[in-house]
Every structure is written in structure tokens, then in C-alpha cells.
Amino acid sequence: MLEKGYSTKEIAAKVGCKSHTTIIRLKKKYEETGKVQNKPCPGRPRKLNERDECNIVRSIMTRECSNAVQIQKSLKVNDDIEVSASTVRRALKRNGLAARVKRKKPLLSKKYCEKRLNFVKRYKDWTVSDWNKVV
């Protein structure tokens, strides 16, 4: 369209772009590279794709595996994917999970609850000045 003499504003209106500067930017990119597509992203390609990460999260949530090393071993055996445990930890972190399962706290014993209740009943009428004398 630019070759036919249309202005960038006219092209933007016909194509449906909100801004004519988009057309200018694309024209400049085409003149420099001969293409309009973006350059490929730099860096190493990922070892784990989104589906692999979902499988990792699922194995933690279903308690199939309890830590990153177990997940690493299961990936190697089941999916033939060799990754380090730190890669698994990063994948878990990206998906909002810590890389470890927190241990459950023991329940409070009846004896402790009774002692705590007796303490509260004994000192419920104390004022702030009484507590200041303790320390």
C-alpha cells in the first residue's frame, strides 16, 4: 500500500490500527531486514515446556513426589527429560509453589490446653501495670 502512494494514516485506517506510527515502525523494520516478523528470542531454549511444568505441579499437589529430587528422577524415568533439581525448583517457584512440602505441626495435647486455660483464668483480671511488674 505504501508503494501505491497511500499515506501511513490512510493505511492505518484501512488495516484497523489505532496509530499510524505502527505502520511507520513496520515500514522501517521491513526496509532494514526485509521482513516484518520479530527476531527470535535470544538465549537458550527451555528444557521444560508448559505441559512439563503442569505435570511437575500436579505431582507435588497429588503428593506423588515430595521434593525436587524425586520429581527430577520421575521426569528422567517417565518422560525421558534430563533436568537438574534446581531447574525443577525454579519451575515450582514460577508456578507459585515452594520447592519443599512444609511439615505438619503436631496437634496441641489436652494437657497443654488445660494448662493454658488455667493460666488464662488465673490472670484474666490483671491490668497493664501488673504485667509491667513481671518484666
Your description of this structure?
The structure is a single chain. This protein has 135 residues and is mostly helical. It is built from seven helices and no strands. Helix 1 crosses helix 2 and helix 4 packs across helix 5. The chain starts with 7 loop residues before the first helix and ends with a helix.
Largest pleated sheet = none
**Shape from CA axes?**
elongated
- The chain-level structural class is mainly alpha
Rounded to an integer in angstroms, the radius of gyration calculated over CA atoms is: 31 Å
Ranges with pLDDT <50 over ≥5 residues? none
Question: Could you tell me the number of beta strands?
Answer: 0
**SSE run:** HHHHHHH
Helix amount, in percent?
Answer: 55-70%
Distance between the termini: 84 Å
Organism: Rhizophagus clarus
Domain Transposase Tc1-like: 56-125
GO molecular function: DNA binding
Protein name: IS630 family transposase
Notable traits:
Transposase_Tc1-like, 7 helices, DNA binding, IS630 family transposase, Homeodomain-like_sf, 135 residues
Which SSEs are present, and which pair or pack?
Blueprint: H1 8-15, H2 20-33, H3 50-61, H4 68-79, H5 85-94, H6 110-123, H7 128-134
